[in-house]
Amino acid sequence: MNKTTQIIIGIIVAIIILAGIWYGVSKKPIVPTKKEPIKIGFIGPLSGDAASYGIPIKNAIALAVEEINNAGGVNGRKIEIIYEDGKCNGKDAVNAAQKLINIDKVNIILGGMCSGELLAIAPITEPAKVLLLSPSASSPDITHAGDFIFRNNPSDADGGKTLAKLVREKYTKAAIISENTDYAQALARVFVESFRSLGGEVVAQENFDPGVKDFRTILTKIKASNPEALVINPQTEIAGGLIVKQAKELGITAFLYGNTALAGTKAIETAGKYAEGMLVIDAPGLSESNPKAVKFLADYKSKYGTTTLEFYLGAAYDAVYILADGISKYGTDTEKLKNYLYSLKNYNGVIGTYGFDENGDLIGIEYKVKQIKNGKAVELK
Q: How many folded domains does the chain comprise?
């Protein structure tokens, strides 16, 4: 065998080997690249008294996520919510935010659900350009907390004024009892300023710490001031219900008014018969003429049972869909998402048609006055 023949045979063998390798590779199944989930953080009260609305809000979010993921996700990517318990206080909310940002690497957070949570984490999230969207935080102080902060829940700058106007329509002397939280203290400040500007007199202004269950000492002081109206301003439903019950048991005859927490199921159940007739401010109920609201409530009740503070739940559900829509167009770039949210003016959601103003506050939906009748908060026409 001469040298030329050896070279030719070598080339043929090499071709056969390469062909075999190509054939083997071509027959291997093609494994599709798995798309990473879109991670979104959650900070809200999942334990303690405020969990009475924190957990239902979580459920509403989970319902929206389940629907979106079952429909194929966002551009083929599933949404994954990382839930953290902010416990409705600044310290735990800060710990939750640091974990979500530094360990889980999220740049979008639903929450904080409590005003104190949101205001505490804003100095951390804002410089990091982490987008916050809350369906329930309502303190007026949130308005100027940051450029990446939004909420589809009315501000208590409006709620405090609505409450002051409501009380002043019938009475000139009012007392107010408030919880020592960012939400309640901000509302109290707006109420007192507004009530006085309307010619009313605040004859007593008392505060209590979170976790307190016995309000008799404070209420006795309020009773001595002889108010015509008593405004009950807690952070949580249970505290509000207990104040109503104990006030009536002490013989306080002042007409009772309450903030949004007093419209909740737990507040009314805790107050029992003593809640009957009380007037409260609340976001509007979900409209029976809105097909999205009707479907949402039916789906929620089918999966989780009873509801409470239904506006919060609808706003939480909407928040997930708003973010999903923005992410489908702009990805998770929070600069672009921020501008997208600022541009929303007529979003048709479960809670109605609304948008966000230049401060990220809700526009298009206002507080309503409701009365407790037969164990339910019913809107006054």
A: 2
